[in-house]
Amino acid sequence: MPVTVTDYSHVRLTVSDIATSRAFYDSVFGFDVAYELPDGADQATLDQLWFLFGGVIYSFPGGLLGLRPVADDGDTFHEDRTGLDHLSFSVPDVAALEHAVSVLDGLGVPHEGIKDLGAMAILEFRDPDNIALELTAPKA
Questions:
Q1: Cα separation of 112 and 33, whole Å?
Q2: What is the pLDDT of residues 110-128, one digit of tens each?
Q3: Which of 15, 89, 93, 100 is the most exposed place for a label (fewest CB within 10 A)?
Q4: What is 85-140's CATH number?
Q5: Domain residues of the chain, as ranges?
């Protein structure tokens, strides 16, 4: 009998520069921070939050998204290697995709155009480590 799951819990992305990645994810998505290491943390706090690896974990209605800054400088993501192909976030409708285009343009983040896939529409772009990101909206 297969394992029964009810939903996703979290996704953690390995990044090369936490400051650059945080600036990107904060600016593009504005997720709430669920866990981060406070400045000047004492050893007990360091021990308690060991799972952050110096990164951050965001909370949003779909679950948790973590950034783990352990990649070597100069290492970049490529979806044709074993592992993650892309990460897609849901938005409520195509108007939200159109708004996202404005946000990305305002931040200078390169992106594809909105693509009509029949039952849904998508908007594709990449984070500072070249991780493929997508916004997906149902079509009415």
A1: 28
A2: 999 999 999 999 999 999 9
A3: 93
A4: 3.10.180.10
A5: 1-71, 85-140
